[in-house]
Amino acid sequence: MPLIVDEVIIAVEVGNTTTGGALPPAAPDPDRQALVAECVRQVLDILRQEQEA
Question: What per-residue confidence (pLDDT) applies to 23?
Fold first, then answer.
């Protein structure tokens, strides 16, 4: 008698606890920080312009 599987559920837990705990996040480089700051500035400018209109 054939077996038909209608649904498969896969659960995964991601962690680094077995190798001594999680590592702290790496510090972002200055270029990335400058890029994020410029993006934030542009988004805030666009939102300000939309509120004025």
Answer: 64
